[in-house]
Amino acid sequence: MRLDYPANIKIIRVPCTGKVDLMYLLAAIQKGADGVYVVGCLEGSCHYKQGNFKARQRVEQARKLLEEVGLEGDRVRMYNLSSGEGPTFAAYAKEMTEHIKALGPNPLKKWAKV
Amino acid sequence: MISPKLVEVGRHLNVNIITNSEIKTVDGEPGNFTVTLVNHPRYIDPVKCTGCGECARHCPVTAVNRYNKGLDDRRAAFIEYPQAVPLAFGIDTDTCIGCGLCENMCVAKAIQYDDTERESTITVGSIILASGSQGYDPSKLDFLGYGKSPNVVTSEEFERILSASGPYRGHLCRPLDREEPKKIAWLQCVGSRDTNKCGNGYCSSVCCMYAVKEAMIAKEHAHCDLDCAIFNMDIRTFGKDYEKYYLRAKDKDGVRFIKSRVHTVTEIPETGDLTVRFVNEAGEILEETFSMVVLSVGLQVPETSKLLAQQLGIELDQYSFVQTNPFTPVSTSREGVYTCGVFQGPKDIPGSITEASAAACAAGSDLSAARGTDTKVIVMPDQQDVAAETPRIGVFVCNCGINIGGVVNVPEVADYAATLPYVAYTDQNLFTCSQDTQDKIKEKIIEHKLNRVVVASCSPKTHEQMFMETLEACGLNRYLFEMANIRNQNSWIHSKTPAIATQKAKDLVRMAVARSATLKQLKEKVISVNKQALVIGGGVAGMNAALGLGKQGFHVALIEKNNTLGGFSRMLHHTIEGGDIQVYLNDLILEVTGHENIEVITAANVTDFSGYKGNFTTTVVFGPENEKRTIKHGIIIVATGAREYTPTEYCFNQDPRVMTQVQLGDVLEEKGAAELASVVMIQCVGSRNAENVNCSRICCQNAVKNALIIKKQNPETNVYVLYRDIRTYGLMEDFYKEARNLGVIFIRFDSDNPPQVVPGADGMQVFVKDHILQRNLEIEADLVVLSAGMVAEDTTDLCGIMKFNRNPEGYFIEAHVKLRPVDMPGDGIFLCGTAHGPKLITETISQAQAAASRATTFLSKSEIKLSAITAQVDTEHCVKCLTCVRSCPFSVPVFNTEKQVIEIDEAICHGCGICAGVCPRETIQLNYYENDQILCKIEALLAGGM
Q: How far is B846 from chain A (nearest CA, A)?
């Protein structure tokens, strides 16, 4: 479909969002990513039944932990769509980028660089 | 896109490619034909030729490049295109001067000037004719200026102009002055839908869609705001989701669609621009100037195919397409000889690929007794153990023609890759997926002792398997491979910002290289294949799929939710060609129910499902007593069908004089048309609107079919068809013409000004604006017939259990729209009939045979290799907390009370990694996706800053 979405989004492939460990989300923020989001299947249509629910739980957990240490929990998000929804994917990518831009840079970045 | 297919065919052990040859005679009978071939000389030995191209580089002779439609030159020693299979050059002796330079230059000693025409014979059981089409030659239509005005090109020429490997390297230029055009006009139906000038009365089915595509790509390639106009009679975007593409072109990208057949194209000598003279719908004569005109030429059967048919004794129709029956779409008039693709009739790529599989099914059914008797087996070299070695990574960066190279600075990315840790070799390729590059990769792996390979190109979904096989072919474990998707995730979406795209490509390559260094060798488990099939849905699609498999000797369980077989076809009477659907259906049901290999289970619903390719288990509850049955099967064919939309428009269900086309079919069958004085049909009811954007494909021909029945029974009846575009594609155009000849009146309306239907005491009143008369019309009608679209059967429950993917309209999603049109994304699961999208009964039959054919590729094997991507437990560090046992959605991890350990059976592990994600001690790792194999990507990405 070649739909345009922001270039600052880099995709890391996992077999199922159920494989997304809490550690991955936190590591990304710790190492200086301004935002992380998980894109899973629509709820109820996970190919592996529950993977996207597990992912959502971990995203929630990550958000809570970030808030606890004084960062914006909303730097981590979960989105759901079906594989047939390219335009929605692009729309979420734009939404996330704009949202993160509004939040500003990740304050951990200056330490991550050192 | 065709490259992986070419490579797959090229490397397939049981496909013997004989190029440069023609059939002389075919003797014998089905199951045992002797085919005599004439092998034309190539003058270069394809076995010795390495495809290095030195002969062409040194050849002093220039010849017209037919592959690029004469728009540029090639040498007398040549290859048609870089991805050609076999990758061997040839000499065009019409232009060769015999100077001997190429012979001197050829290190492989492949040049044979004395090569001669030979004859050879092969013995085969079945024959499939797939000789394809050629574009119509418009030079006879002098009013279009083709051949006189250089800036008038055919659509085939324009395809080459847009191509990266084309005459202008993908730069949008017009032939006269190589200037970039500012305005381009496409003229539709050149050599199609035209009985006056060229005799091709049929619709070529593909030109509307390719014209829209060419306009969109041209806009993408253009540096200015290119103005694109498509002059058409009807826009026929009837394929699955094609309407959405058309709307995107029209509404979002500003492609203009003008309803007109152009009168003349005249060149302005000073500028080379072209004046297009046409009549608009209001009857005004208009002129508009364009920098370039593209003639959307139709498909037609080449003369050589006609000769071939003559030699084989195959009957052709009036347009020289192979004569087939609506219910046996791939069978020719000669037993044992089948056909597919455009030689069968005009069609697009998905249709051709589907039909190709159908022909393979028909041919395979005849030969099933001899399956596996004359085949070769692949022997891969022994794998070398590189586990202890330091990583030596090879990075291959692909230009993908200009798909990547036109945006991303590929040499810069390749240079950058060379600076990354463990990278021992980097290279860039025009097409990394082509056969010659595969050979080059193998060479480099051996030469540089590479033990990891990274390809930066396109999507692993389409190309990963092919590259992994390349690794295996030189003794490297296939899992030591990683792809960076710098096309779909980069150059395609950031085409306007090359610098950013280049930086992102570097980031993606850095991530891939980091990951590849952490990859481990993995071993795949081999499992047996259950030879039984499960077909879901007992309509025409499901029954044909079941028969396709049953005839090849596989046992089939055919489950149908209703009490009887037949599905939606029970409601239909005749095909547009006149084929009796009920007679066909009853014969089909008898054949299916009487077949020794097919078990029919009616009133059945799926209640449980588990397993994986080759070994599925499905539980069904069936019959009046709700009996339970567990079926073990190796593959699944989904054929759940679709039904007619129930209109809410035009007083349907409020007035008995308003009915659907299917209901009209019943009325005509029972009472005939004798009492009907006036019938109005309204098209696109429940299709091409806000609720259902897509075209339902079948309704136009349905209206024409019923209109013809009425007119033939009662010529006095006035029949009006109110339409938006008439989409009687392919050979059905003849019926549209016949309907007009018999006096059926077709009136076009706009979607924003639809007809109004008002019930009256004496009849229905229909109000519509006629675009040609520019007047509002009022039509009295006995019946208002709504051409209701198709809607997919409700499969929510089934999908809840079996986890199949559907699109927003409820139709199932195929693995690849063009290359794998009947495969579902899950391995071992196939799709056919209207469950895939609206289609005709003939198309449904060939798609069902195609699904059976694809399923046979599984069922014919006694064992298959499973993915090595499964979860592993480190039992030594496991604390047996049982979190994995509780979390696995498939109940795979079990606690072995005897050994006191957690066990994960790799044969049933789905490889989702949920257990690895929940394990609190990280003692479970998912192969190929171990924690450090993912974390290193995050680290590598962020090491570059963001």
A: 25
Chain A residues closer than 8 Å to B912 by CB: 15-16, 18-19, 47-48, 51
Instruction: Write out the DSSP string of B22-62.
Output: EEEEEEEETTEEEEEEEE---SB-TTT-----HHHHH---E
In a domain, A9, yes or no: no
- A96 is in which domain, residue-wise? 17-104
Question: What is the average pLDDT score of chain B?
Answer: 94
CATH class of B645-789: alpha beta
**How far apart are alpha carbons B779 and B755 in whole angstroms?**
10
pLDDT value of residue A114: 44
Superfamily for the B533-641+793-863 domain = FAD/NAD(P)-binding domain (3.50.50.60)
Provide, as residue numbers in chain B, all residues whose Cβ is less than 8 Å from the Cβ of A58.
917
Nearest to B805 among A11, A12, A84 (CB): A84
CATH number of B871-926: 3.30.70.20
Q: How far is B33 from B42, CA to CA, in rounded Å? A: 26
Q: pLDDT tens across B243-298, in order?
A: 999 999 999 999 999 999 999 999 999 999 999 999 998 889 999 999 999 999 99
Q: Which of A1, A8, A16 to mutate to test the interface with B (most CBs of B within 10 A)?
A: A16
Tally of helices (H runs) and strands (E runs) in chain A: 4, 2
| Mean pLDDT for the stretch of residues B341-352 | 96
Query: Which residue is it, tokens 């395609």?
Result: B492
Helices and strands of chain B, counted as H and E runs: 22, 47
How far is B259 from chain A, CA to nearest CA, in Å? 27
What angle separates helix B931-943 from helix A22-30, to the nearest 10 degrees?
20
Nearest-neighbour CA in chain A from B939: distance (Å):
7
Query: How confident is the model over B655-679, as a mean pLDDT?
Result: 96
A73 occurs within a structural domain: yes
Using the structure block, give the residue that is written with the tokens 């690929």.
B353
Closest-CA residue of chain A to B918? A21
Can you name the CATH fold of B134-300? Answer: FAD/NAD(P)-binding domain (3.50.50)
- Which chain A residues have a beta carbon less than 8 Å from that of B926? 15, 19
pLDDT range class, residue B401, cuts 50, 70, 90:
confident
The dihedral over CA atoms of B510, B513, B515, B516, expressed in degrees to the nearest 10, equals 170
Tell me the pLDDT tens digit for each residue of A8-60.
Answer: 999 999 999 999 999 999 999 999 999 999 999 988 778 788 899 999 999 99
Instruction: Give tens-digit pLDDT for B488-533.
Output: 999 989 999 999 999 999 999 999 999 999 999 999 888 899 999 9
Whether B83 has a pLDDT exceeding 80, the answer reads no
Question: Per-residue confidence at B908, pLDDT binned at 50, 70, 90?
Answer: confident
Indicate the number of domains in chain A. 1
Contact A31 B937 (CB under 8 A): no
Across the range B376-392, mean pLDDT stands at 90
A112 CA to chain B: closest CA distance, Å?
Answer: 9
Closest CB from A10, A13, A16 relative to B507: A10
Residues of A with CB under 8 A from a CB of B: 2-5, 7-8, 10-16, 18-21, 23-24, 27-28, 31-34, 44-51, 54, 58, 82-85, 90, 109, 112-113
The strand order across the sheet containing B21-29 reads: B21-29, B32-39, B118-124
Q: Has residue A40 been placed in a domain?
A: yes
3-state secondary structure of B724: coil
Residues near B900 by beta carbon (within 8 Å), at least 6 away in sequence? B880
**Interface mutation target, options A22, A30, A48, chain B, most CBs of B under 10 Å:** A48
Q: Do domains B393-518 and B645-789 have the same CATH topology?
A: no
Partner residue opposite A47 with nearest CB, options B803, B887, B926 = B803
| CATH class, B393-518 region | alpha beta
Put simply, the answer to whether B946 touches A20 (Cβ < 8 Å) is no
**Position B429 pLDDT exceeds 80:** yes
Q: What residue spans define the domains of chain B?
A: 3-129, 134-300, 393-518, 533-641+793-863, 645-789, 871-926
Is A78 among the domain residues?
Answer: yes
Work out the number of other CB atoms within 10 angstroms of the CB of residue B754: 19
Of A28, A46, A83, the CB nearest to B938: A28
Residue type, B696: S
